[in-house]
Amino acid sequence: MILRDYYNNQFGNNFYLFINFVKDYEKTPYFESFLLRLVEDMKISCEDLNAPLYDYLYKSIFTYTQSGSKAQYNFSFLYEFFDKDFLNLFLSKEGEELTLDNNIYDKNFSAISIEKESFISRQKYTDLDLRLEITKDENYSYLDKYKGLSGFKYIKNEIILSKIRKYIQLDGIFSFFLDADEDSLVFRMFQIIQNGTFCEDDINNFFANKTYVENLFNYEYD
């Protein structure tokens, strides 16, 4: 069975509405190819088969809110299979600001710039003792304010994924995430990107980054 059929059986006509929303606003060709994956293959790499749907929804909501679209969606059809708190947060001004924020925060709520983390990674890519702040779970504890919300797990996961993706967009070196604690949430989210579990573009970016680093190390001076 392919994922499209699995989700159709689980959510009925509501999933058709969800597909249309994602296709309108997620703006990548990867959702269609994702839905053609075999359920059995997906279960090997993803314990929660609904988790990728939250990822596509998160990115679609962001594009929708930023597009200035006049289209008014009645998102109530999603409440039957997505956590209502997740939807309500990211459809709110607070959720939009959370998504746009290019920082993470330490335990004292001091901002840590992802752009700066990316710059440090390029400057010190040979420093085997360096641990970047973006690779540490403790610097995402500021998200625990949402712990009481029903979709907290997905809220935290999606924010961490978005921060790692932002780091990649800023040409941050991927290898620093390989030194993250293996039982940490950040490392698990990194593996989702490294393996292209949710989206083929993630693994494409991972290998492009890997090639970039290999070229740095193999550079031959004249």
Describe this structure in words.
By secondary structure, the chain is mostly helical. The protein has helices at residues 3-11, 13-25, 30-35, 39-45, 51-67, 84-90, 93-100, 114-123, 152-169, 185-194, 200-217, and strands at 103-105, 111-113. It has a two-stranded antiparallel ribbon. Helix 2 packs across helix 5 and helix 8 (114-123) crosses helix 9. The longest helix is centred in the last third of the chain and has 18 residues, at 152-169. The mean pLDDT is 90.
Q: Report the biggest beta sheet as strand number plus sense, adding barrel if it closes.
A: 2 strands, antiparallel
Order of the strands making up the biggest sheet: 1-2
Q: What's the gyration radius in Å? A: 18 Å
Percentage beta strand: under 5%
Number of distinct beta strands: 2
Contiguous runs where pLDDT drops below 50 for at least 5 residues: none
Q: Which outline best applies?
A: globular
Multimeric state: single chain
| Alpha-carbon distance between the two ends | 56 Å
Number of continuous helical runs: 11
Calculate the mean pLDDT score and round it. Answer: 90
Order of helices and strands: HHHHHHHEEHHHH
Secondary structure category: mainly alpha
Helix content, binned percent: 55-70%
